Amino acid sequence: MLKRRSECRQSSLVFHHDLLKTRYARFREAFTEAVEELGLNEGISDRRQKLVPHSLRHTFASWLVQAGTPLYTVSQLMGHTNIKMTMRYAHLAPDNKRAAARVLEGALSRRS
Length: 112
Hints:
Blueprint: H1 2-8, H2 17-38, H3 53-66, H4 71-78, H5 83-87, H6 95-111
């Protein structure tokens, strides 16, 4: 497969951007078709409430944060270039601050 790609590719990259875009386009098309067949967006007029491929990314990040995954780790998994992008999910883990305070409290009480 790599040999065939090297003979016909126009880029020096093995997996160039056009190939990735094509793969995503196929996924997006299949996802949209499945959502339509299942009627998951029926009766929803607000485009912000519709199920779209990006909904999967948002759910991925939301569930990780709700499960207690550190925001820095979520940021890395999401491929965010800036932690500010990930901070929009911080409200989903309000207990993290309390848990961190309890860890510190426990460490301090063991010292005394």
